[in-house]
Structure formats: structure tokens, C-alpha cells
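Support reply, case 0932

Customer input (verbatim):
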Amino acid sequence: MTERLDGRQDPPALKLAGGSSPGPAETPRTRLRLGPSPAVAIAFLLPAALLLGIWVVYPIVYSIFRSLFDASGSGFVGLGNYMTIFTDQGMLTTIRNNLIWVVVAPIIVTMLGLVFAVLTERIKWATAFKLIVFMPMAVSLMAAGVIFRLVYEENPDKGLANAVLTTFSDTFASSQGYPEARPREGDQSPVADQDGAVVTKQPAQAGQPVLIPIVGVKPEIMPANAQPAQAAGAGAGVSGTVWFDFTQGGGGQSNVVDGTEKGLPGMTVEAVGPDGQVAATATTAENGTFAFDGLAAGTYTVRLPQSNFEASYGGLSWLGPTLITPAIIGAFVWVWAGFAMVLLAAGLAAIPRDALEAARIDGATEWQVFRKITVPLLSPVLLVVFVTMIINTLKVFDLVFIIAPASVQPQANVVALEMWRVAFGGGNNQGLGSALSIFLLILVLPFMIMNIRRFRRGES
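Our regenerated output:
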């Protein structure tokens, strides 16, 4: 031990193994390094960085450079291609469609995903429900486009959407119609056309059957339940027959009910009084006969209203220029609703149950618990799903290309599809296509940065 000025003695120096004393205090530079050296880390990261530069950085830089030239690549146009994006009418329609996509699709997907996630906590067969809703995610967008191209077929016999609509329409209202049917022309016909309706030329009286011959009925719209026409018997009330006054192969007499001619079932027949008001209504039977019940004595004009000669309801024109964008958004929602449901269900599972039970004990209704507790606690996940859907809508390509027919693609066009069409789909304008790709990158970039920051905050 050594003696100090204050008379105290320092403790003996510690001996290291082997009898040596420790040296001076270690500096950060002399401290042993844990893990690989920076050179090793760089060696492992270099291949990935090289591939990232080839597949991401170089295409972006070259696209920026190429967007400043014309279609041939030899003439410098500066920002001319970017000006075309905001001045061409077709491009403006494309940008408008993208705005519709960004506003509508993410909101619907997020809301449906939230509803599905909440339902999975309340039903016993939650696993099967999740499987059914998430199953479209296993289908590629191209396959989904083919599926919905068939779903949106206008013919109800082929398209599921219109088959459902026409089924509901037939349930609540008769859709039997005879388009292009008309009365026979000439003075010999007992009926005439009046503003699309068919009316009798002579007033009808009780005991005198009314004959209403119709021509122009196409074989494909003749109802399967149509029976051979029969002349109505003379009775106390006003009655008559509506039939297809045509004998296949020739023969028969005009304005006379022949045995080979068929009645027109499902026709609405009205008895119109002298004051122009409808006094009674009847419907023709399978053999075309009709009779008015409870009709007061007097003379009436028998009328087939115009609705009889309108085409039956065949659904909506989903693939027409008016509904094409909402129809494609419906296909997008079908694919991505399961993705949103899975993420939001995971977020719901992480919510503390104590807060929910405390609110219920305090008397909060289920709607109040959902609106004031569940949604605020779930807001980070909701934001992630919403931003992810915005990015997906900005990049949508397959669904629009597959579902929209060529005749309405200009009305359904989006930026990603327009970029491909201009550059590679026949336009051969690499300059404008590159400008559209950079424009799309600028639109997507803020939402990508937002998502990355959200992920980093969640990890910290």
C-alpha cells in the first residue's frame, strides 16, 4: 500500500490473472467491437443496394430524363409533356377518374373492413366468415377482372348482377313486356295507336266481346305460358281478347281469332270512362282473354297502356359509360375488403377490454362504445389501412384494363392504364408515358412516406 499526504493509505493495486496490474483506462477506440465490422456489413448490403439502384433508382432517373423529350426521343420539349397531362381533355378525364377512385374506394374498403372486423367478434362462425371475406385476396386482380366482367354482363341470363336485379323486379312487379308490338294498320283494324297506347275505335258495351288484335310480336319474347287464343264469351260485363293476330306459314283471317294464333298473357287492360278516367283494370289470361269485374253499366273505351309495349326490365348497363367506374370500384372493394378486415381485426384484438367493459358498466350503449372508445383506439390501424388503399387505388391497372370494354375505356381510364397505353399500348410516345409515370410517382410518394413514418412510430 502507498501512503498519502493525509496519512491514509491507498489500497493495494488489484492484480490481474498472471500477476499483472491493469493498464490505463480503456478508450472507445481500444474497446473490443461487438458484431461484424462495417466492411462486412457493407459487403452484405452492396448486392441489395446494387439491385435497388438498377431496378428503382436508375428507372426513376431515366424516366425523368426521358419525360423531357418527345415521342421519338430526339427533340427536347422540356415540360411540354407535363403540360399535355393537364390540358388534354382525355388526360383530364383520367385524372378525374383517379380522384374518384382516391376519394371513394379507400373509404368504402376501410368502412367495410371495420364492419366485418366488428362482426367477427360477435358471431360464432367467425373463422368461416373471415375465410370467405378474405378469399378474394388469393385471386389475382386479373382473374378478379375476368370474374366481374362476367358478373356485369348486361344479359340477365349471363350476368349475375342483372340476374339479381331482374329477380327482385319480377318479385314486386311484372316485367312482361311486348316491345315493338303494335296494332295492325288500316281502317279494318278495330284498334288504333294513340300516343304509344292501343285503344279501341268503338266504345265497348256489356255483352259485346272486345277484340284487340296485335302484330309485331317477336318469337323470342312470346311468353312460354301463352296458350291458343280464345274469343271471350258474351256476358254481363265488358270482356274481350288480346292476341297475336298472325298465323305462321300464312292463312287465317285478319282481326279474327283463329285456332292457331296465341293469346298475349300478362297484358294490362284498362276500361276508360267518358270522362277519361280509368274505371277498371284487368290482366289478360294465358289465352289472352280478360274481363272487368264490378264495372258499372255504360260505354267505355278499352285501352292497352303504353307500359305493355315497353321492354321488360333487364337490369342496368354496368359496363356502359355512366356506371363503368363505380362498377370497377365494386370489384376493387370485393378484392381488398378482406385485407382491411384482417388488419382491423388484429387491431381490435389489441384493444384493452377493461376500457370497453368500464364504459358498458357506466351505462354506455354499444354504439357509444364503438364510436367513442373502439374507433379512437383503433385510429392508428384505420389510418394505415386507409393510406394503403389510397396507394393501391393510385396504382390500379388490371381491373380497369380487363373489366372496361374497349368502347368505354376512355370513360374508365386511370393514370396507370393511360401510362401503359400511351407508351406501350399503341401510342408509342415514350416521352408522354414517362411524364405520366413521374406524375404517378409524385402522387404516390407522400402516402408512402406517411405510411413509413407511421410504421416507425409504431415500432418506437
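We compared this against your earlier run and they match. Two observations from our side: Confidence is low (pLDDT under 50) at residues 13-21. The radius of gyration is 39 Å. Please reopen the case if you see a mismatch on your end.
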